[in-house]
Amino acid sequence: MAPLANIRVLDLTRVLAGPWCTQNLADLGADVIKVERPGTGDDTRGWGPPYLKDQQGADTSEAAYYLSANRNKRSLALDFTTDAGREVVLALAAKADIVVENYKVGGLKKYGLDYASLKQINPRLIYCSITGFGQTGPYATRPGYDYIIQGMGGLMSITGEHDDLPGGGPQKAGVAVSDLMTGMYASVAILAALNERHSSGLGQYIDMALLDCQVAMLANQNLNYMTSGQVPKRAGNAHQNLVPYQVFEVEDGHLILAVGNDTQFASFCRLINMPELVEDERYRKNAGRVVNRDSLIPLLASVMKTRRRDTWLADLEASNIPAGPINTIDQVYADPQVIARQMKLELPHPAAGTTPMTASPMRFSDTPIQYRNAPPMLGQHSEDILREELGWGDEQIAALLGK
Questions:
Q1: Residues contacting residue 352 through CB under 8 Å, at least 6 positions apart
Q2: Does the keyword Oxidoreductase apply (predicted)?
Q3: What Rg do the C-alpha atoms of the chain give, in angstroms?
Q4: Same domain, 169 and 275
């Protein structure tokens, strides 16, 4: 039995934050029914190229972006703005454990699909709304997009090279981290509500906002500001609180050196034949190294340029000093550790034969993740859902789906 076997999720989300949440639930064994607009479906189905190739090498309609967040779900193509479509969603919600939606604030109320309405027919329902700014506050009605949230939430103010260096200035992360982190927080909140329901017997409403999650995920940078009154600035590839903990240029490229404590720093100084640095009061402790980074880093940078990357990595590992390469994504999937952890897999796909997938990082000793389905094609399971979940016959299905 998967951890969430027998849990039913009605997924009214699209793009990334909501689908990332519901893919987590699906990977954990929940039966996730993804309700999509007929004809177009989830917006990300068209967010390409690249698209998944069919067995003849031609593009399918499935964008790689969509594939990344919709594994293990079933797709129901349904227009719930019609009376017939709305009744189907209501019937499914009555049997669901969880509803996840990411429409604008109040967007589902006019269809009777808001929490207050659905709670009347299913008091055990856990209902999670994901929006840019939450259900309250002066920005509640604004649309929220990851890129904007990264800027508003402070991430871009601390990401990128120093302003006075070439290439300096605000920089977004390489993936939609606000969306992804909100999806993760939403997953945790839903599971907590599911556990609480064992005690109360009742569901509850969960209000998730991208901006809230972006602010929360600044972690140590939040407390750096709150405790010092100093606004953190961009530090490029250096760390605000640890030194040396950054990218260094080496003879044939770059590597990451991540000295996390004073013992590691002493080992590093022995490795580079500069034991005098450990005796220098400016550098002996991390606090001193942070304050005096401008004098220390040039000394280390000069030494790091004297050896090739792989030589450094071998020597650093032998000395128990954390370090690593900066891999391109193709190198990631060729890495022996990534291969050993089986982070890439293939799932059968009706249009392409198979589709590549990145595995879930959640590993269980007794109830492992089950990769049941590739991300569904639009409406792939419509007939099955209507027949199996609602007991509809052929005529009813044909009338609704226009077949």
A1: 52, 53, 54, 55, 60, 62
A2: no
A3: 25
A4: no
pTM over 0.85: yes
Contact 277, 259 (CB under 8 A): no
Tell me, yes or no, whether 193 and 78 share the same domain. yes
- Position 181 scores a pLDDT of 98
Q: Specify the number of domains making up the chain.
A: 2
Q: Which of 326, 355, 385 is the C-terminal boundary of a domain?
A: 326
Q: Rounded distance, CA 84 to CA 400, Å?
A: 7
CATH number of the structural domain spanning residue 253: 3.30.1540.10
In this structure, what CATH number is given to the domain that contains residue 211?
3.40.50.10540
| Residues 116 and 72 placed together within one structural domain of the fold | yes
DSSP-derived pairing of the beta strands 323-324 and 253-258:
antiparallel
Contact, 277 vs 293, CB < 8 A?
no
- 114 and 257 part of one domain: no
Phi, psi of 168 (to 5 degrees): -70, 160
Considering only CA atoms, which of 50, 8, 13 is closest in space to residue 29?
Answer: 8
Take residue 97 and report the two structure tokens written for it. 């454990």
Question: Are 140 and 201 contacting, i.e. CB atoms less than 8 angstroms apart?
Answer: no
The residue whose two tokens read 């917006």 is 43
- Strand ordering across the sheet containing 323-324: 245-250, 253-258, 323-324
DSSP reduced 3-state for 14? coil
Statement to judge: residues 213 and 359 lie in one domain? yes
Choose the catalytic residue: 31, 146, 179, 212. Answer: 179
Per-residue pLDDT tens over the stretch 82-103:
999 999 999 999 999 999 999 9
Assess if residue 228 is contained within a domain.
no
Range of the domain at 358: 8-217+339-401
179 given a catalytic annotation: yes
The predicted pLDDT at position 3 comes to: 95
- The number of C-alpha atoms within 13 Å of 24 and in the hemisphere containing its C-beta is 20
Question: CA end-to-end span of the chain, whole Å?
Answer: 36
Burial-class residue 172 by CB neighbours within 10 Å (0-12, 13-18, 19+): middle
Q: Give 347's DSSP letter.
A: E
The residues of the chain scoring below 50 in pLDDT are: none
pLDDT at 225: 96
| Residues 181 and 73 grouped into a single domain | yes
